[in-house]
Amino acid sequence: MRSTCLVAVLAGLAYAAPSPAPQFLNFDEVEGADVPTVTGPPIDAVSQPITYDEGAAKASAAAEVTDDLSSPQKRDLAPRGVNDPCSPQPDGYGPKPTVDSPAAFLAYQPFADTANAAGANPPQGYQTSFQNLQASVNANSYMGLTTLKTYDTIKCQQLCDAANLCTGFNIYFERDPTLAPADGCPNPAGFTNIKCTLWGSGVTKEAAKNKGQYRRNFQVVIAGSNGYTKNNPPDAQTGFTGPTEFGGAINAPGDYIGQKFFPGVYDAGKCAGACQANTAYDKRHPNSDGTYDACNFFNVYMLSKNNVPQGTYCSLYTKPWEKKYSTNYGQYRGNDYYSVSSSYGYSLNPQDPGHI
User: Which residue stretches of 125-172 are H helix?
Assistant: First the structure.
């Protein structure tokens, strides 16, 4: 059984007694969450495989919730030698303009033509989120990088489909140095890499914030950047019926237990873990009459700030709620708008009666 004091000081999982009050976003938790340190590939990387372990993520989420309830209160994967001073850089398979300069790279028409043609024909199962930008995605849900030999959206899509929980990808041309810039070669000649990055959220135009940077005197710039978002719903979860697609987030008239926010990859499994951990904890601490708050339903969605994905938001309930209650599409905090997308519901099967 949770004490009033414990409810008041919970830092990670915010609880509310069942009431008709709306389930407003917990901005303090969202803005206070530990943000992933890797939000995109290193500037000198041509490959960065990242394996997302759904089972480990779910277990970690459950442990985090249990810890909340019990509480009173980049790595560099560049190949060896690639970053040695003035060492030759790998790949560079893409076309390049006759004039080797950042301005010529950005103005090179074949980059725009290729991106626009690819944007008009997204891979099956995906929709084009943006096309022909001069910036790449930078967000909390980064899942890895592969450098391609051609501007191949199908290959990039296949890489996304093969990666657990990948729901979007960004493909673009990048002007990179042929040598690792150093004192002896501060501004070497450039060549073109074609990069494919994977994301555990839908990619948006607003998330395309990386316009390049300097490596010594060499200017890295980006062109022909396209983003694609997968249309598929999240995976089924063991022990639950679903997913059921909603419009916005659930705003139920009662039976609300609380919420949990996980920055990074959109992962319904984390909400399932949070739901199960909540029930397990309450069952170990029942009320005097033997009742406890059983999590029988959760609503999972991607929370975005000004249309830039932030992470997975989970709302927990003691009973299932229907789509007609999914009326919370977002909220303002000051000038920032927090929006709801990819909202789905999962019901425990069988339902837990909430009594010892």
Answer: 153-162
* CB burial of residue 37 (10 Å; 0-12, 13-18, 19+): exposed
Structure tokens of 168? 């979007």
* Full-model pTM: 0.73
Name the one residue in this structure whose structure tokens are 């609380």: 258
DSSP letter string, 283-349? HHS--TTSB-----EEEEEEEEETTEEEEEEEEEESS---GGG--B-EEEETTEEEEEEEEEEEEES
Interatomic CA distance for residues 53 and 313, integer angstroms: 19
Determine the Cα–Cα distance for residues 64 and 44; give it in Å rounded to an integer.
Answer: 34
Q: Name beta bridge partners: 313.
A: 261, 301
Q: Of 180, 184, 125, 188, which Cα lies nearest the Cα of 154?
A: 125
For the chain, the first-to-last Cα distance in angstroms comes to 12
Burial letters 299-319, b for 16+ CB under 10 A, else e: bbbbbbbeebbbbbbbbbbbb
* Neighbour count for residue 226 (Cβ, 10 Å): 26
Residues sharing a CB contact under 8 Å with residue 158, sequence separation 6 or more, in sequence order: none
Q: Cα(166)–Cα(307) distance, rounded to whole angstroms?
A: 18
Question: What would the pLDDT profile of 276-318 be if each residue is shown by its tens digit?
Answer: 999 999 999 999 999 999 999 999 999 999 999 999 999 999 9
Return all residues near 193 (Cβ < 8 A) that are at least 6 apart: 46, 91, 92, 93, 94, 147, 173, 174, 176
In tens, the pLDDT along 46-79 reads 666 666 566 776 676 766 666 666 554 432 333 4
Q: Are 228 and 122 in contact (CB under 8 A)?
A: yes
